[in-house]
Fold S-protein homolog.
Amino acid sequence: MAALFSRRIILFKTVLLLMFLTMLKAKTHVRIINNLPDDMQLHIHCQSGDDDLGFHELSNLSSFEFSFKPNWIGSTRFFCFMAWLSNGHYFDIYEYRRDGTCLWTEHTCKWHVTPNGPCKEFSNGTARCYPWNT
């Protein structure tokens, strides 16, 4: 009986170790899609505490995508300034607490930018919209 318990503990530890190592190597992908009406151009500038992804201009329905490895303590955050016409807003486009599951379930955090705020698209066809930070 003790041998069986010992084998299960070893198996459990091995599975946990493999999951942890996979997380260290895995990349998260973020895609931002311009869904503004009337063919409006979307100007975006995204960055984290470590990386500045620069300025990008997106025509209607075009996208900007980036990839990164989340830090192991779960505090990774990317924020973007998004502007069109006379509007400008900030939004945390990736927060580990909210979006960490993109890595395992969606493979890409896909965001559709609308005038009322970004909407996160899920693989089952549903979406959840969020208000702008400002």
Remarks:
- Residues 27-129 form a domain with the Immunoglobulin-like fold (CATH 2.60.40.10).
- The two ends are 60 Å apart (CA to CA).
